[in-house]
Specification:
The chain is an alpha/beta fold. Helices cover 33% and strands 16% of the residues. The longest helix has 21 residues. It is globular and about 80 Å long. Bound molecules: ligand MGD (2 copies) and molybdenum atom.
Length: 786
């Protein structure tokens, strides 16, 4: 049976009060009020800015990358998008006065939330070791120091150019060009920790690196399956099309070890009629709490069950369940897959998935009856040792029924940062084969480096081994977001040069190397004037549509520079002049950067400047949508594997699978507050969520503070402590705790094969009863809340 609606073992923890409201609704309005009415919000009418969020004449939200409809709602924003907006519009400033008051050592002990809550960075800063403080310098000095530092490296391969996924297409294009002209492909980005399993898996299966679904597919789809994605917190605007689907009677099936509220119920806070009536819309009618790492078994089980249904249809002379025409004309590898599926045994599938054969067959029947289906997924599939297999097995399920390149059908990886997909599109990639290097060589008259660059895991390992000498960060909080953060921080201090382009202060900035620069930039919400003329930037959403974005708010300080101006400043101070790369002209008028982008990528960006304002976005060509398969074989490729467990380690009685989670009150390492409303966890992030069965089996008690220790035999001790045991509805052997607090537990070596995405959704850990104060993350303790 699909478990419908109510949790099967209601949680009873002290901190954890079950949330039985919908996502959205009055809770959403209250949460917004808490953020919007904070004293530090700069503008009295910040709400007015929200009206221009995700509209053609406004700015594209700085939170998630969900699609922006052609006919936007009057309020095309969500609770978390609004929080992200307010967070950039605060009136507090982390200015020279702030840094004069606090040493770097002191700030390093602050929790994530307090650092960013100090306010917007306002002027360029340089770390001064003598006073242990960041001191203001001029922009010219900052660029000169960065340029000197980079020019001083004996080998350009010893510098890394990280990007975090928010910066515009214009900035990203310039940044990637800067790195290549400097002499390396060391361009890791947050995608390396996120959907790189998608970027590796999808091209092998269907010949495109991105999802094939467009917003209008929601209007015609007959079925939706979601795997490991938390829509209510991470892409709440997707709840609007999901709500419409649910009302049309489209079956929605969810596979997730946690019962995430967003997939259960939704009340649209922007629809007055809904807010005044008690009801809310049920989203998922079928909710399957699979085991963490159990998706290969779930997906193979679903495929096997589809095959069984097809066998039965054939026996009864009924219409086939497999899309045989599609399989014959458009795919390769089906026979091998079928052999593999027939060889798989249900008891093995049940053990690995945590679901019964009956549950999987029930879900497969719903899927098999539907004329089209959307397969949606997130980090629950990608962040495992076998994350790439997960993505490819999901494609198998889609391809068996011809659900790619059909209206209402497709594969939908829901991307993270608001321009993370776009950064890859315009050249931020460590993989030289993904970038038109010959075109760049011709366009700019230089010889681009051809060797593969460092990705995130490569960078972590390189810094730990002492092989990296300079880290340039275009946004992000690498030291907290990456795996093995404790080991990384120790090695980080030995870096000769660190340069961070940022809006807000975070922990990465507080582990200075020999020369450390902090370069404050405009937020996308702010007006970007160059020579008195307002500039437009562009981003790409999860459905491969490009959007224009115009800032609407006055800059937080008149000393801020735009991201394109900062990248140009760094490049000019570092590189020998090249008349074919007009950094200054580009900054004077961003439409020239878009012309350059179009010249490098003529197919994706045809008539870019003219079309960037297209309502609903300017769609990027996706061959798979046309059933053109840009794979090795020229066909969509099935993937046969015996893999049933994505975790990549064996079960053992004391070993638990740690799922690192985001709360509803954070954006990655940006912690807005301590209210994970949908999960009923209030006031502290120092919790470990655990099924009551495991709590009893391990002899623990609710509220008890314990430590987690990584259960990997590599001679390194990894520990995070002071976490309160919190009863929660989770499958046996699976526990949950927050990212980034738990990142010291994640070994850099524990990553997806091929894509190198750190396996943050199945970290092997053990419980340790003693708590060592050295391993307690900063932030409010659970006991302070009781
Ligand atoms: N408000 C807000 N929005 C965000 C972000 C944010 O932090 N805050 N982050 C942005 C970014 S960069 C990204 S990448 C996305 C992330 O958005 P998601 O892809 O939703 O990622 P997570 O929040 O990490 O959670 C993934 C979900 O997978 C489930 N899960 C864990 N392990 C497994 C498993 O083994 N199998 C299955 N089937 N499910 C599993 C978890 O319970 C959780 O519901 O959101 C983006 N949007
Ligand atoms: N254990 C575990 N680890 C994970 C994950 C997980 O689920 N579990 N998720 C992974 C994922 S999906 C991702 S995407 C990464 C995220 O990793 P990152 O992208 O590196 O981290 P963020 O927290 O998004 O970065 C926040 C910082 O970006 C800066 N910033 C904000 N806005 C701007 C801007 O407009 N311009 C510039 N220049 N800077 C800005 C601010 O200084 C802010 O402090 O973390 C990964 N790490
Ligand atoms: Mo992400």
């Amino acid at each position: 049976m699909g478990r419908k609606q109510e949790p099967h073992n209601a949680p009873t923890g002290r901190e954890q009060q079950p949330y039985d409201g919908p996502t959205g609704g009055w809770g959403s309005v209250k949460s917004l009020a808490r953020h919007g009415l904070r004293r530090e919000v700069r503008t009295t009418d910040a709400a007015a800015e929200l009206l221009r969020q995700n509209k053609h004449d406004g700015f594209m939200c700085v939170s998630c990358s969900w699609a922006k409809p052609a006919k936007p709602h009057p309020f095309e924003f969500c609770e978390n998008g609004a929080k992200a907006t307010f967070w950039d519009l605060v009136s507090d400033r982390a200015d020279a006065e702030f840094f004069a008051k606090h040493t770097v050592t002191e700030l390093a002990a602050w929790p994530e939330h307090d650092l960013e809550a100090a306010g917007r960075l306002t002027e360029p800063l340089r770390y001064d070791a003598a006073s242990d403080r960041y001191l203001p310098i001029t922009w010219d000095e900052a660029f000169a120091l960065a340029g000197q530092g980079l020019r001083a490296l004996a080998d350009p391969k010893r510098a890394v150019f990280y990007a975090s996924g928010r910066a515009s297409l214009e900035t990203s294009y310039m940044y990637a060009l800067f790195a290549r002209m400097y002499g390396n492909n060391n361009l890791p980005d947050s995608s390396n920790m996120c959907h790189e399993s998608t970027s590796v898996g999808l091209p092998r299966s269907i010949g495109v690196p991105v999802g094939t679904v467009r917003l209008d597919d929601f209007e015609s789809t007959a079925c939706i399956l979601s795997f490991g994605q938390n829509v209510g917190a991470n892409s709440p605007r997707m709840l609007h099309p999901l709500q419409d689907c649910s009302r049309r009677g489209v079956p929605i099936l969810t596979f997730n070890p946690l019962r995430e509220r967003g997939w259960e119920r939704f009340k649209n806070p922007q629809a007055p009629a809904e807010m005044l009536t008690p009801g809310s819309t049920r989203i998922s009618g079928w909710y399957y709490q699979c085991r963490a790492g159990g998706d290969p078994a779930v997906l193979q089980g679903l495929c096997k069950a589809v095959l069984e249904l097809d066998d039965a249809a054939r026996a009864a002379d009924a219409p086939r369940v497999l899309d045989t025409d599609f399989i014959e004309n458009h795919t390769t590898g089906y026979e091998a897959l079928e052999r593999q599926l027939r060889a798989l045994q249900w008891p093995d599938i049940e053990r690995a998935s945590g679901l019964s054969a009956e549950q999987i067959r029930e879900a497969a029947e719903v899927y098999a009856r539907a004329e089209s289906a959307l397969l949606i997924y997130g980090m629950g599939l990608t962040q495992h040792r076998y994350g790439v297999d997960n993505v490819r097995l999901l494609c198998n399920l889609a391809l068996m029924r011809g659900n790619v390149g059909r209206a209402g059908g497709g594969v939908l990886p829901v991307r993270g940062h608001s321009n993370v997909q776009g950064q890859r599109t315009v050249g931020i990639s460590e993989k030289p084969e993904l970038v038109p290097l010959d075109t760049l060589a011709e366009q700019y008259g230089f010889e681009p480096p051809r060797e593969k660059g460092l990705d995130t895991v490569g960078t972590v390992e390189g810094v730990i081994k002492g092989e990296i000498e300079a880290f340039i960060g275009l946004g992000g909080n690498f030291l907290r977001a990456a795996p093995d953060t404790t080991r990384l921080a120790e090695a980080w201090r030995r870096l000769p040069l660190t340069v961070h382009v940022a809006t807000k202060l975070n922990h990465t900035h507080l582990v200075p190397g020999a020369t450390s620069l902090l370069l404050p930039c405009l937020s996308r919400i702010e007006c970007d004037l160059q020579g008195g003329v307002g500039q437009t930037v562009t981003t790409e959403d999860s459905t491969a549509c490009f959007h224009a974005s115009v800032g609407v708010q006055d800059p937080a300080a008149d000393t801020l520079l735009s991201e394109p101006a900062i990248v140009a400043g760094l490049a000019r101070a570092t590189l020998d002049p090249n008349p074919r790369v007009p950094w200054a002209d580009w900054v004077a008028d961003y439409s020239r950067i878009r012309d350059a982008i179009e010249a490098t990528y003529p197919k994706d960006f045809r008539e870019f400047n003219a079309r960037m304002g297209t309502p609903g976005g300017m769609p990027r060509p996706l061959p798979a949508r046309e059933r053109i398969w840009e794979t090795e074989s020229g066909k969509a490729q099935f993937h046969a594997t015996a893999c049933l467990d994505a975790a990549g380690f064996d079960d053992a009685p004391e070993r638990l699978r740690l799922v690192t989670l985001r709360s509803n009150d954070q954006f990655n390492t940006t912690v807005y507050g301590y209210h994970d409303r949908f999960r009923g966890i209030e006031g502290s992030r120092r919790v470990v969520l655990m099924g009551q069965g495991d709590i009893d089996r391990l002899g623990l008690a609710a509220g008890q503070q314990i430590s987690l220790v990584t259960d990997v035999d590599d001679c390194e001790h990894r520990e995070v402590g002071g976490l309160a045991v919190t009863p929660y509805d989770l499958p046996p052997g699976c526990i949950g705790a927050y990212y980034p607090e738990c990142n010291p537990l994640l070994p850099a070596s524990h990553h997806a094969i091929d894509s190198h995405v750190p396996a943050g959704k199945t970290v092997p850990v053990r419980i340790k009863l003693e708590v060592d104060p050295r391993h307690i993350p900063p932030g409010p303790a659970p006991t302070e809340l009781l």
